[in-house]
Design a protein that fits this description.
Blueprint: E1 2-6, H1 13-24, E2 28-30, H2 31-41, H3 44-53, H4 65-72, E3 81-84, H5 90-97, E4 104-109, H6 112-120, E5 122-124, E6 131-133, H7 160-174, H8 176-183, E7 187-191, H9 196-208
Parallel strand pairs: 1-3, 1-4, 2-3, 4-7
Antiparallel strand pairs: 5-6
Helix pairs in contact: 1-9, 2-3, 6-7
């Protein structure tokens, strides 16, 4: 099964991708993870991507398409995959359409005001990468990572001002993908304000149908 997860930053795509990957035994392919790995290693691609990500802007298509296509050619993708964070533009969607036949594009829908609130509460450990949230995943000791004891930080792209920029960019460049996959008869829209479990159930029910 070849799936795409759509939705604004903070809509919960990553969480759903992980759950669906486990359920269907297919890899979760996140461009965010790919870019973060490059940022950590300070590769030329990572440094270039950082310039855009720090401003809450999307990484340009040419820095993304070839990397993703190469990943889809790996043996573990033979039985399908879940794309999280790609495609983000109609140009990327066209590049993907030319290479593979996607089964469904799942749109996790969450209002902007709820997304801003969600992301404002995010915290992350700069050492081991463990994610936390002031409401949904609180560490045992406030501000300290349970796993390694490092002080938690707020990522720059989770700050309110940056989140609002990211949402504006999403609505301008990425939201048109909803119409693209709707026209192709491959769009599934679910209410992302429900519990994590309820969202997963809604997706799997729609896929069975």
């Amino acid at each position: 099964m070849k799936l795409i997860l759509l939705g604004a930053p903070g809509a919960g795509k990553g969480t759903q991708a992980t759950r669906l990957a486990d359920q269907y035994h297919i890899p979760h392919i996140s461009t965010g993870d790919i870019f973060r790995a490059n940022l950590k290693e300070e590769t030329p691609l990572g440094l270039k991507a950082k310039e855009y990500m720090d401003q809450g802007l999307l990484v340009p298509d040419e820095l993304t398409v070839d990397l993703v296509m190469d990943r889809l050619a790996k043996p573990d993708c033979a039985n399908g995959y879940i794309l999280d964070g790609f495609p983000r533009t109609l140009v990327q969607a066209a590049a993907l359409d030319a290479k593979v036949d996607i089964d469904a594009a799942i749109n996790v829908e969450v209002p902007d005001e709820k997304i801003v609130k969600r992301m404002a509460g995010r915290r992350v450990c700069p050492k081991c990468g463990e994610p936390y949230h002031t409401e949904y995943k609180v560490p045992a000791k406030e501000g300290v990572c349970d796993r390694c004891g490092s002080l938690l930080i707020i990522r720059k792209d989770d700050e309110a001002e940056t989140v609002l920029k990211r949402l504006a960019v999403y609505h301008d460049q990425t939201a048109p993908l909803i119409d693209h996959y709707q026209a192709a008869g491959k769009l599934i829209t679910v209410d992302g304000t429900q519990s994590v479990e309820a969202v997963t159930d809604a997706i799997t029910t729609a896929l069975k149908a």
